[in-house]
Amino acid sequence: MNWNQARRLFRRERVLHDESPQARASKASGAWTIGEVRAASLCIASGKGGTGKSFLTASIAAFCATRGRTLLIDADLGMGNAHILQGVQPEASLVDFIERGHTIGDIRTPCREGLDLLAGGSGIPHMAGLQREDRARLSEQLAELEVSYQFLVLDSAAGISSQTMAFASSADRLLLVVTPDVTSMTDAYGFLKVHNQVRPAEEVLFVVNRAAHEAEAYRTANKFKEVSKKFLGVQPRWIGFLPEDPAVGVSVNSRRPLLIEDPSSKAGRALSGIAANIFSELECLCPRGLGRSLSAKWGGEALSPQKRSARHS
Question: What is the pTM of this model?
Answer without folding.
Answer: 0.84
